Amino acid sequence: MKQYYLLFIILFTLVACQKNVTSEKGDYAYFGGEIINPNSDFVVLSKSEEPLDTIYLDDKNRFLYKIEDLTTGFYSFFHGGEYQIVLLEPRDSIMFRLNTMEFDESLVFTGQGAKKNNYLINMFIDSEAEYENVLKFSQLTPLEFEQKLDSLRDEKIKKLETFYAKNGDSEVFYKIAKDNINYNYYASKEIYPFAYYGHNELKNLESLPKHFYDYRKDIDYNDTLIKDYYPYNAFLRYHFDNLALAEHFKHSDDQYFKRNSLCYNLDKIKLIDSLSTDVDIKNRLLYHYAIRYVNSTENIESCDKILKEFLSRSSSEPNKRQLAYLTESLKKLKPGYDFPNIKLIDYNNSELVTSSLFKGKPTVVYFWTYAWKGHFIESHNKVIELKQKYPELKFVGININIDETKNWKNALKQYNFPFENEYQFANPHDAKDAMALNSINKVMVVDGKGKIAISNGNMFNVNFEEQLLGLLNK
């Protein structure tokens, strides 16, 4: 295997070098890779959520692809339900190697332009590991929290400066890496009030030090270079949560934070429209908040008001159609309505319909995908716990992945989860539309007669078990 891999690198380098000698018009880059334990036989390459091409793996699970007329920035590659990003600049020749069993952790880049991407992927992994520490810091007073956070940022910037001085990489990389540090820092400060004060005391926002949000004056709400970069997008979402909260408290009698308040979410949509002018950034933020509200509210009628506000401000026709369709689908999934009769495939590859599952006892229906490994594991562990506490209930897991059935089975086997009452959608696209399934956290509860009892639950919410008890005590 090592010999094959070495040969591939040599051939890859020779091709890249040969192309560099040749005079060609336009900017371009080469991108290739090797995938260990592939979940499918192809990789999808995209730019700003627009697919560029579907690239098929060869018989050694490798590929090599030339991107013509390259636009400097982030490109995403998708494989088997998971994706990552790569920074590409003119004349880059980058190859990656990864194992799908540890997608992010195993990802390594080689070739021209590899160092900057390895640095960025390591920053991503380090940030995930650092998250728990930041949450602990959030229990400190504002000044103590700032001191801890400032120290972390200073250490990262020094490390970046050393790397940049040694490797002399591109200015684009330096800007992006520094943005990564800063926007993670800003996001931590936006999250802080929710962790420190708690949702019932967020009126105390005004007691934060006056300088606490000084960085806000430097925010670029329309940074097209990093619009596809997770730290930037995550920050903007936390930031608009906070801005809308401050705006909401100005005209609301609410004494504590209500995430699903219609008024609060309408304030958010209006703020995004007023501050963001880049079409892609604005449309993504508008859709994120509108779809999140629709997916989590128990007041289905209020969805029409969110939809109306969204339609008046978004310029994305696909997003408009999707949200309108979702809103209409949700109206058919109200408590008291029949659960949609959808085709499923069981562990033995037999086909059945959902109506055959809901006979005699209330049933909790939850959904999962191995693309979200954390949720997949946590939801199944939570169900094991709930089964012991509520033997009167039946629990049904439905995998929503769009691929061969063996992959969802392998995921269950890998983590030793039971196969009983585990299914996969026979026609995932149609099923997800019928179920208005846009959030993997969505849980539905069906009574013993096949009628919907809870249409939009979440097993990780503190009140979920209260809802279950209410159903059992009827």
From TrEMBL:
All copies of domain Thioredoxin, residue ranges: 333-474
Cross-referenced InterPro entries: Thioredoxin-like_fold, Thioredoxin-like_sf, Thioredoxin_domain, Thioredoxin_ResA/DsbE_sf
Protein name from the UniProt record: Redoxin family protein
Domain of life: Bacteria
SUPFAM superfamilies tied to this protein: Thioredoxin-like (SSF52833)
Organism: Gilvirhabdus luticola
Entry-linked Pfam families: Thioredoxin_8
